[in-house]
Automatic annotation (TrEMBL):
Pfam families: Dimer_Tnp_hAT (PF05699). GO terms for molecular function: protein dimerization activity. PANTHER family: BED FINGER-RELATED, BED ZINC FINGER AND HAT DIMERIZATION DOMAIN-CONTAINING PROTEIN. Transmembrane segments: none annotated. Residues 128-207 form the HAT C-terminal dimerisation domain. This is HAT C-terminal dimerisation domain-containing protein.
Amino acid sequence: MAKLPKFSTISAAIQAGINNIEKWYEKTGDSGAYFICLALNPNFKTAYTEAAWTPREHKASMHAFREMYHQSLTMLGSATSASDSLPTCDSELAPSKSSTSTYGTAWMENIIKNCRLKDLTDLDPHTELEAYLAAPLTNGIADIVAWWGLNSGPAQYPTLACMARNYLAIQGSAVTAERAFSSGALTNTRRRNRISPDLFSALQLLKGGYCNGYLSAQVQCEMCEAEEAHLGSFLDDLLGNADENK
C-alpha cells in the first residue's frame, strides 16, 4: 500500500505503521500462548506455522508447546490420571436398565463397555499430543470450545482439553484494536454510510496518522507553502526566459 501512487503523500506514515506491526508481531514469540492457541485449533493445528514460519521459529514453538503439555500432564496426575478417573463397572459400565432393553441387548452392551475399559486402561497419556497432531485437520469447526468439550473424554484428549480451557479463554483483542473499531464507527456514521471502501480506508489512515503523531497539520502547511514558493519561483523563471526570447 505504501508504494501505491495514491498513497504517496502518506507513505511514510504507512511504513511507520507497518514497522510497528512487525515489532509487535515479533513480540508474540516472547509468549507461548499465541502458538499454543493456534495449535489447539483443530482446523489449523501446526499446519500454518509449518508453512509460514521459519523452521527455527516453528521448532522452538513446538518445543515450548510440548513442555507445557508435559507440565499440564503432571498437574493432572501424570500417566496414572487416566486410569484413576475411569468409570467403574458398577456405574457406567453396568448393563443398561432401559425399559425397552432386553437381557441379550444389555449383555452385549456390557461386553462392549468392558472392551472399552481395557482400551482406556492401555491408553498412554504421553501419546495424546502426538495422536492429536497426527489426526487429520477438521474442516470448518466454528465453535472450537464446544469441539474440545466433545473430545475431552479419557479415550480422546483429556490433557489437551484442559489446556484448551486455560488458553482459549485468554482475551485475543487489544485496546489498540478496539480503539480502531470505535474510530471506524465515528467515521462511518449513519449520515456517511455510503462511503466507498477506498475512501473509508483513506480516511481511517489519515485519521490514524494525525492521532498517532505520524502526520502534523503544521508540517503539512509548511510543506504546502514551500511547494507554492517553489512553484512560484519556477513560473517566474519560466516567464523571465520567455520575455528574453521575444
